[in-house]
Amino acid sequence: MLRNFTVADIVGSVEASLLFALILLIPGYVVGWLSNVFDFRQRRLATQALLSSPLAVAVIPILVYLLGPYPKALWILFGASWLVFIFLLFGIAQRLSQSRMQMHPAVAWTGAAFGVGWASLAIATLVDLQFKDRLYFSSTAYDYSTRAAFTAAAVRAIPPSNPFFAANPPVPLRYHYFWMLICSLPVRLGHMEPQQAMYGGTIWAGIVLMSLIVISLKFFIGARERLERKAMIACALLLVTGLDILPTLYIYLHSRQVNPDMEWWTDAQITSWIDSLLWVPHHVMSLVACMVGLLVLRQTAATKYRRAVAILIAGLAFASAAGLSILVAFTFASFGGLWLIVAAQRKWWDEVKGLLAAGGVALVTAFPYLHTLAGPGLDGSARGGRFFALSVRSFSFGTYLLYSRIHIFPETMLDLDLILLILLPVSYFLELGFFFVVGVQRMTQMRRRVIPMSRNEETAWLLVASSFLIGSFVRSTTIASNDLGWRCFLPAQLILLLWAAVLIDEWWSKGCFRAGKKMAPMFAAALLIIGVLGTTYQVAMLRMYPILQDEGKVRSDTLVWLERDHELGQRTYALRSVYGTLRAMLPVDAVVQYNPNAADFIPHELYSGRSAAMGLPHCGANFGGEVSHCEGRVQSVAPLFDKPSRSANADLDTVCRQYGIDVMLVDDRDPVWEQRDSWAWSRKPLLANSYVRAFTCGDAGQQAHFAPVSSSGNSPGHPDIGN
To answer: What is the pLDDT of residues 523-571, one digit of tens each?
Structure first.
């Protein structure tokens, strides 16, 4: 009987999303009530509900990090918040009974529809799809595989250790992993796998972002009239991206190339909202924390005590932002430095004092985490160096067209930089599409003084300017791709989204969308439709690309993480089945070793749930540790999978004992699989099927305390591990 992993993923994701209410919604409500920021206690229940989750994202991550080494203290804190909420429920029930405190039914149902719709979209895109004995992960598993391993490491201990470099003492993880800390909590409370907890976290990330949009319209943009309609428009605009579908179509027509993600048509992407939420929700949550910190500081405080509380909340928010995404936090810190100069020139000393004080709180609370980032880069090569470098934003698609179609070739780097500068507006128009027009329209309104230049308006423009300055002239040096140049645009994207909601509401009220009424609204509407079509294609391809590739419908010559032998589905099912059984058999601190040089690494990282002595080439030292400390493992572990010598069977137990490996796992793509006289075939497996063989080794092999395989090669009681 085959186990249905699709159903298991759906159930686990829903369970995780329900548990996130205990981790985010309830503690966030308590934080709002106790601190009374935004005059929380005097707000309507609907406003309180919208404020709760963003407040939690601002405060909870840094508290989980600081209290993580003391699990009892951490759970006492959560338990206390749940008890306080139970006490507050009496007041909530009383307010609900008053009709004047209730939200308009249509608005409530629409809000619920947005939440359910997003949850359904996220689950449908992220979970594994199973067709009998074939299993297909989403394209997003390329990123989730690594972060699932980080989440599993956080389940074992906070702060987590590098799961690809199991050692004693543990090697501290070097990454912006605070969202993984939050996602590890449902795994501790419930019975789901780490990747399922992350899927539940992605559901909540979308809900939190929509909550931030509404409160930003209210407290930052200052929308008063038709706030509900503007909020619904803004949330619907999350489905709109730029004009990416047009160059994507061009590339397909000229080379028949199809990418797993539409954003990959360029090396200088401005990621769509849906794509950011599905791929990198931790970056979006960092944006939420930053904006909450800014909005809290903007609230008028009646007393010094309330001002101190606001500064404390803002400081914790900025500290959380750093651990959620150092890239977004860097962008926001750059904005903060520019804003301090502007505020000082305008003699807004309340802004200066508040921002400096909150920054001080953030530095003090986040210092232990920031200290761990010293050394090799966050995501990329395991070498040290600067976090960023000055460089004109690349635009490979544009330069390719110049070279191939117009035959313009730069002779020097200065010529190339000049070309890239000229192409910047074209790049931004293609990437932003409808939102590019919104920005131009807002600037026009500002010049005509239709919109007053308030403090919040200046702040918004400086946020946009900071994003574009960094995105245009700064790039990451810690990773091959320009991750900083991608994520720095999130603040600008949020501002443009808010402005777009206000503009559409204004055009709608004036009837500007009627045929032939005005050119600007009609042109914007056309771009909006193209943006929706782009997002639709993008989500469909994220879901279907591995299936299409396995069926030979699309090419993937450059994607080494997707096998081209048309057995991806069967192999993935076999690997997940074995790893699922191993998780049930092994303690959480067991070490499971697979081929560290495996080209198709996704199933190993996504489903293992256990550390590896050498989980990636060079032990993933870019995520913690030093390459020099991994050299012995490179010489001992990797050769066991790559045509080992005849004495490797004896060497296997020695290597396992040396590095604390409990189980060694091989699959049919490893070179050792082809050697029928190797240890992979001469040794009796613990679990085996047509694609995977797992063996106990070292001390675990000698103790033989795991259940043996049956004569058919399957583990007793696990009929899903089939031949």
So the answer is: 999 999 999 999 999 999 999 999 999 998 887 667 778 888 889 999 9
User: Using CA atoms, how far apart are residues 624 and 617, in angstroms rounded to an integer?
Assistant: 13
**CB-CB contact of 336 with 492 (8 Å):** no
**Residue 625: closest CA among 613, 641, 642:** 613
- Rg of the chain over Cα atoms, rounded to whole angstroms, equals 26
Beta strands 388-390 and 474-476, pairing class: antiparallel
How many helices (H) and strands (E) in the chain?
28, 8
Q: Beta-carbon neighbour count of residue 254 at 10 Å?
A: 9
308 and 396 belong to one structural domain: yes
- Burial group, residue 102, by CB count within 10 angstroms (0-12, 13-18, 19+): middle
For 536-579, the DSSP string reads HHHHHHHHHHHHHHHTTSS--TT-TTS-SSS-HHHHHHHHHHHH
For residue 196, CA distances in Å to 2, 7, 181, 188 come to 20, 11, 14, 13
Tokens linked to 147 = 């972060």
Mean pLDDT of 208-231: 93
Query: How many folded domains does the chain comprise?
Result: 3
Give 190: exposed, middle or buried? Use CB within 10 Å, 0-12, 13-18, 19+.
Answer: middle
Query: Which whole-number Å values give the CA distances from 700 to 575, 660, 696, in the listed order?
Result: 21, 9, 6
DSSP 25: I
**Pick from 206, 200, 188, 198: which is nearest to 54 by CA?**
206
Domain interval for residue 151: 5-234
The token pair at 64 is: 């989980």
Q: Per DSSP, what are the bridge partners of residue 591? A: 611
User: CA-CA distance, 689 to 674, in Å (whole number)?
Assistant: 15
Same domain, 128 and 89: yes
Query: What integer is the mean pLDDT of 407-425?
Result: 86
Distance CA 642, CA 715 (A): 27
Q: Count of residues for the chain?
A: 723
Tokens of 86: 């139970």
pLDDT (tens digit, 9 = 90+) per residue, 188-216? 999 899 999 999 999 999 999 999 999 99
625: left (phi over 0), alpha (psi -120 to 50) or beta: left
Same domain, yes or no: 594 and 676 = yes
HSE, CB side, 13 Å, CA atoms: give it for residue 691. Answer: 19
One domain for residues 12 and 91: yes
Place of tokens 């903007």: 298
Same-domain pairing of 329 and 477? yes
Q: Strand pairing partners for 130?
A: 135
Going by pLDDT thresholds of 50, 70 and 90, the confidence category of residue 651 is confident
